[in-house]
Amino acid sequence: MSLPIYHHPSLTVLIDDSDSFLKSLSFQLDPALASKAFHDTRAALEWLQERGEQLGNGLHPTYDTYPRSHEECSVAFDIDQIHRISFKRQRFLTPSVVVVDYSMPQMNGVELCEALRALPCKKILFTGVADEKVAVDAFNRGLIDRYIKKSDDDALDRLESEITALQDEYFAARSGPLRDMLAVNNYGFVSDPAFVALVRDLIREHGIVEHYVYSSPAGILMYNSDGAAKLLVVETEASMDSHYEVACDNDAPTSLLDALRERCIIPWFRDGDGMFSRDFSQGWHKYIAPAQICRGKQDYYWALFDLAPGELAEPASSFSQFLRERASAG
Asked: Three-state SS for 187?
């Protein structure tokens, strides 16, 4: 079990040639599964292809091949790219799941999904017409990810459940290669099942709707639906030793050194590199939180810090505000 290196609310695109059915479905779906509806397949295809080109996840490593050979090239990645996604207002318009009817006049649902094959969005065939053979064939060809019959008694509940599951799969797939890179560069917690379970518990407990791996200090930046931010700071034995050594070198108070040595606090000195300096000698208590421990492949020491407005480089627009703006726009 791994943790997507980022996850935020995204858009469910509904495509059906019946405008009345689309309006009914949009009304019945959980508002948190923000949706955009099309009754014209060509308009839907054009919009999705355009959004796919515009958005992407923008996360790209850089390769330094000079003066080495191709086999010796080094790879670098700016981890701050990840949390900067939260500063983009358009992130909530990322189409992660497409729900498409089968029987439509311009092209059927399978043909539309085939036209969308190059896009990373997940696809659900939601229909009352296509038989099992059509659905199984489309699934085996990798054109759809799920198949739901409109006539099933629990069709709506299942549709909401599958959309949620596929949104998770979408972000897991988008972050997979970079997550593997991070896992071997001091961010092993993203691939540690014990820590992933902890993060999922915190997400439920605090009503978190989006999260991003964070670089300084190492951890996970989280937002609730109103945009209130928390930072899950994650330390290891090695990084706690580093805090202790830097504090010693800067003549930290004995009480701070004892707390660091005993692993009972998580420090985050928010100015500069996050480490202790003499400037914090008098007020160091304001920059710590009680340490909790997660025992996984290694021991992780962690604490959850509330972030005040202005502590991040840019403000993040909230998902609640996005939903309000969509509702007022009709």
From this structure: coil
Q: How far apart are CA 237 and CA 243, in angstroms?
A: 10
Domain that residue 14 falls in: 6-233+310-328
CA angle 235, 238, 244 (to 5 degrees): 85
Which sign, positive or negative, has the C-alpha torsion 235, 209, 15, 40? negative
Q: Residue written as tokens 């005993």?
A: 262
Closest CA to 101 of 158, 51, 44: 44
pLDDT number for residue 239: 95
- Show the tokens assigned to 29: 């779906």
One-letter amino acid for residue 39 of the chain? H
Contact 143, 113 (CB under 8 A): yes
Q: Which residue has the tokens 């989280």?
A: 222
Alpha carbon distance 261, 309 (integer Å): 32
Query: Which pTM value belongs to this model?
Result: 0.90
Amino acid at the residue 161: S
Domain count, the chain: 2
Q: Supply the DSSP string of 225-291, one letter for each residue.
A: TT--EEEEEEE-HHHHHHHHHHHHHTT--HHHHHHHHTT-EEE-BTTTTBS--GGGTTTGGGGEEE-
Please tell me whether residues 135 and 205 are part of one structural domain: yes
278 and 185 within one domain: no
Give yes or no for residue 73 having a pLDDT over 50: no
At 56, list the tokens: 């992407």
Provide the pLDDT confidence category of residue 78 given band limits of 50, 70 and 90: confident
Do 152 and 88 belong to one domain? yes
Tokens representing 326?
Answer: 């969509």
Contact status, residue 115 vs residue 107, Cβ threshold 8 Å: yes
Q: At what angle do helices 237-249 and 254-261 cross, to 10 degrees?
A: 160
Compute φ and ψ for 294, nearest 5 degrees. -120, 120
DSSP symbol at 118: T
Residue 134 lies in a domain: yes
